[in-house]
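User: I'm putting together notes for a lab meeting next week and I want to include a structural view of one of the chains we've been expressing. I don't have a solved structure, so I'd like a prediction I can at least talk through. The sequence is below, exactly as it appears in our construct file.
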Amino acid sequence: LLLCVTHYYNNSKLVVCNPYSGQTRWIQPRNDDTSGPGIYGMGYDINNSHKILRLSYWLDHCGCEIYDFKSNSWRVVDITMEWRISGQGVSFQKNSYFISQGKRKVEEVGSKVNRFLLSFDFTSERFGPRLPLPFRSCPEDSVILSTARTKKLVVLFTKCDTNEMKIWITTKIEPNIVLWSNFLKVDMRLLTERFWFPYWIFFVDEKKKVAMI
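Assistant: Thanks for the context. Below is the predicted structure for the 213-residue chain, given as structure tokens.
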């Protein structure tokens, strides 16, 4: 299934498409839906019931809602968020995975931030424990999450003050552990201009060692 957001900044509608059957479903937000950008993830529970997770931030509060395909309805989920998710979710093994970071104090702005990997279990409807990424980063760096043929997670890292782009791929991932290996390193000086990838997506081919961004 493919989840598409029609208007990122006002979240007016969602549409889910099944490219194999050609079926689509338009999903209306809740009547009291808050304005502002939302963060989405999609997966399914132990009963193979597909669900959509929506997170919305305003001030220091985070709202969490789940759409259930069987009931065709939204409901609010009470989850205390001690961290901030900084990108859209990637579906992997029933769950959604996100790049996250701890809430930073004012005096910590501009310093190294402890980004980590976070999963959302659609059966328990809870976030899992923090899982480490293979690097440390600052807010200006690009960190993008993807999958490799739905069997592995892949993360791309571009540091703001260097000309290198690095990609790591998981060799093992479980609810409480993740192991990474170096997959690809690209010298960005070969390009004619500087590139920065804040919200892009990418795909990799393990056998050919190729990444398409």
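A couple of points you could mention at the meeting. The chain has a mean pLDDT of 83. The radius of gyration is 18 Å.

User: Perfect, that's what I needed.
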